[in-house]
Amino acid sequence: MALSTADIKYSHLVDDTEKTRTHALRTIDRQIDLLGDALHALKAGRTEVVEEFIERVAAALTVEIETLKAAAPTA
Predict the structure, then answer these.
(1) In angstroms, what CA-CA distances link 38 with 2, 44, 49, 58, 65?
(2) Are 31 and 57 in contact (CB under 8 A)?
(3) 61: which residues sit within 8 A by CB, 6+ positions away?
(4) Is residue 12 part of a domain?
(5) Terminus-to-terminus CA distance in the chain, angstroms?
(6) Do the domain assignments include residue 75?
(7) What single DSSP character describes residue 72?
(8) Which range of residues forms the domain containing residue 42?
(9) Measured between alpha carbons, how far is 53 from 59 in angstroms, rounded to an integer?
(10) pLDDT at residue 75 is higher than 60
């Protein structure tokens, strides 16, 4: 049985959504780790390291938000 065009489009949409979801989860996971490192540095009084880590997290999450916005399906 051959797949219809709608079935193929749906399959691609599911695949694209899963790729986007996986990428977002990996990004968030890495940023949580970096925030943990920032907290450790803060407790050690290394504020310059904390500042750098937080800036990196903010930049990465900003990029991820833009990626998610761009990937959103249009109605």
Answers:
(1) 54, 10, 7, 12, 21
(2) yes
(3) 27, 28, 31
(4) no
(5) 30
(6) no
(7) S
(8) 30-70
(9) 10
(10) no
